[in-house]
Amino acid sequence: MARAAVLGRLIWRVARVAAVRDETPTARTLVLDVDGWPGHLPGQHVDVRLTAADGYSTQRSYSIASAPDGTRLELTVQRLDDGEVSPYLTQVLRPGDPLELRGPIGGWFVWHPEDATPVLLAAGGSGVVPLMAMVRTRVAHASPTPVRLIYSTRTPDTVLYRDELRQAAAGDPQLRVDLVYTRGGPAGWSGPVGRLDASRLATLAWPPGAAPGCFVCGPTGFVEAVANLLVDQGHDPQRIRTERFGPSGG
Amino acid sequence: MGTVSRGFGGRRRRHAPELPPGQYLVEDFPVLSAGPTPRVDLGDWEFTIATETGERHRWDWAAFRALPAESVTVDIHCVTKWSKLGTGWEGVSLDTLMDGVETSAGFALAESYGGYTTNLPLEDLLDGKAWVAFRFDGEDLAPEHGGPARLLVPHLYFWKSAKWVRGIRLLDSDEPGFWESLGYHDYGDPWREQRYWGD
Amino acid sequence: MTDMWTDGNALAGPMQEVLSIDVTAAVGRCVACGRTGPIAETRVYDHAPGLVARCPVCDQVLLRMVRCPRRAWLDLRGLTYLQVAFP
């Protein structure tokens, strides 16, 4: 069923907001009920369409944050202050409201839970959202796939899913989560602060010999830098998949 | 129309009766592009009018800037529905550039650095309807808005105002440009809402 | 100045609407330079009156798409071929 969900006709559906959950002061998770939802693979996204009363409409794409769960799915939206859509989704939309969306979309940046090859996940900021869907799906499947998540974010205040990631990693020696703080660490932090560089990546990532599947997601600058570092360090470019959150976001 | 999103307004926009059908006013100046921004050195820049007989009239930047230029204030309308009223430009009129060009061609294809093209009847470039503009809002035209120079044809949808223009090819028969070959209207009159083929 | 492009994942929804396939995992060959790779790894200019996907190596236009309420137009001339895999 999961593979069949990748193909087929794409129609707009009206989802209902079941609940909202603030992840950080500027990021909110929308819990949606979508009648007829065909299921999805972790890494896929939805297109969300908003329509104003005068007929003006605009669309944005959001990665699905949740593991497949019947007709329920979650999106985590990062608010951009000068954005057009994210302020609405994170501050105005409330339980009971409709939200028009279509999906699941995407067949490239997806992880198949039955794939047992080691996986490297590299997240820049809100790029962690589709990678979290992969982690959650792995947990839901009790999959033995070895996973390393390197999550680059500015400060402890901007970390999404911190407690959930900590708990998941604590209970599973095959799941490793490393946070890279680029602006400032938590109180008492003695570790490095700054961008993910070659030496830290080499320490935290799988060695090339493990031939991991690599998923890199985040702003264009992060994705380009990390993908290039991985290739420099000997990883097969054909096993690196990227998704950029481009300038069309907001 | 999709399901209305309760409480959603979107970017600041105003509807105004003086706008062409389906348009709204915006406060910023959206940047649209089909490709990377060309970086054109003024020392290399040229503008060429090529007639249907193969004659070429060419200006380098110095020659172009030595031509008489005009300041104009015009309304612009993008096919993606935003409009701006009263925008200020400085440019050389196509009447000036076409002065001395012998042609019996009826059509023109504007060509840009980076490969963009757009077509229009030659008469829509003449009689005070079009310029090669090099300043916007009192400043040199920024690269993202088409600098060093762009075509400015405000009576048609703004995709006809080719950014990074490098010349006009005069043709006996119409030849669809970049967007006109993929669904966008051959002429593009905002007042008749000619956005797509068949409109 | 950063050019306004994103990657080929931005084509997924619009192209699936027209062709009912996922195009991002499809492999295409650039007609100009021969670069061959997944459409997901192309450069997509989506701040435009249509979608334009360009070769990440040589900037050749690989494919274009225009959408209006009741029609869509697709130009695939920039690809020598598009290879689609079935699950």
Give structural notes.
The complex is a heterotrimer of chains A (250), B (199) and C (87). By secondary structure, chain A is α/β, with parallel strands linked by helices. Chain A folds into 2 domains: 4-105, Translation factors (Elongation Factor Tu (Ef-tu), domain 3, Beta Barrel); 119-245, Rossmann fold, CATH 3.40.50.80. Helices cover 19% and strands 32% of the residues of chain A. In chain A, strands 4-3-6-1-2-5 form a 6-stranded antiparallel beta sheet. In chain A, strands 9-8-7-10-11 form a 5-stranded parallel beta sheet, sandwiched between helices. In chain A, helix 5 links the parallel strand 10 (213-219) and strand 11 (240-245). Chain B has a domain at 45-71 and 89-192: Alpha-Beta Complex (Sulfite Oxidase, Chain A, domain 2), CATH 3.90.420. By secondary structure, chain B is mainly beta. Chain C has 87 residues and is mainly β. Chain C has one helix at residues 12-19; strands spanning 6-7, 27-30, 36-38, 43-45, 51-54, 61-68, 71-75, 79-83. In chain C, the strands form 2 sheets. Chain C has a 5-stranded antiparallel beta sheet, covered by helices on one side. Chain C has a 3-stranded antiparallel beta sheet with strand order 3-2-8, with no helix packed on it. The N and C termini of chain C lie far apart (41 Å). Classes of the chains: A alpha/beta (250), B mainly beta (199), C mainly beta (87).
